[in-house]
Amino acid sequence: MVSQGMVSLTKSLCTMTPRVRLKNPNMLQKLKTGSCNFRFRNLRVLCTTKLSQWEPSPFIHASAEEAADLVLDKTVNVFESIISESAEEEKVDSAQQRTNSQVQVLKWPIWLLGPSVLLTSGMAPTLWLPLSSVFLGSNVVSLLSLIGLDCIFNLGAMLFLLMADSCARPKDPSQSCNSKPPFSYKFWNMFSLITGFLVPTLLLFGSQSGLLASLQPQLPFLSSAVILFPYFILLAVQTLTEILTWHWQSPVWLVTPVVYEAYRILQLMRGLTLSAEVNAPAWVVHMLRGLVSWWVLILGMQLMRVAWFAGFASRTTTGQQPQSVASK
């Protein structure tokens, strides 16, 4: 009974014809020929008169082999693209490593060339050149000779700092190197430079104007220029160099004052020798000795700051290692 009911229901569904009001009379001919398609928005109704009771609906079946071939082709293409990208990345990395190794090989001679330039331009003329060949008395020629001697050192110091900057840069040129000194370091350097400039200037002004009666007798202008004018020029050059290293964020900002202050001590010792040649008064000699003591103190503090910075860098490195391990 159940099977007969299903058969009768199927017959009724197959013989049932939907009633549709057609505005176009040509659609009636299509209905008589056999099949028609109706589209109602997202609904598609397929009506056919040629299907029998037991004929299944026309489904399109794709073979499993064709589907598997399509999936395999797409998978192979994906893997080929990944392999090609990884090969390109390895080529780029190997090229960068070769470039970095070549740059490092070129930097090796700088470790010897930089200090040699500093020694040749700064220490050799001051230590081995006879002072009598440079100083011929309290005149303009002697002043220009001493300034030229200090300019040779300034050129050598500039070359040394440029070489040191190139050695301190990262191995990979694409990496940025931004080294900023702390504000306390800048303040202390500026304070020491301004103090080293104001003290002799005020003493000379007080002696020439007569405001300080103890600073007598007066020192002639050419004699004071021979002793102190190269000193003032070196102060100005050091100030300009430090400001530029701070502005460019160069890693040599910690070494710059050490280079100039070490030479300044030799320069002031030369001034003590010249003070005897120009018959400088006793207060000038004491002033030069005080300046030598001041810059030795400043140089010692700079060296202590270098040691502090090395310890700070080591603490920072050891602090970053556990973080990197934890991130891995």
UniProtKB/TrEMBL annotation:
| Keywords from the named record | Membrane, Transmembrane, Transmembrane helix
Q: Which residues cross the membrane?
A: 108-128, 140-164, 185-207, 219-240, 292-313
Q: Which residues form a coiled coil?
A: none
List the signal peptide residues: none
- Organism domain of life: Eukaryota
- For this entry, the protein name equals Cytochrome P450 family protein
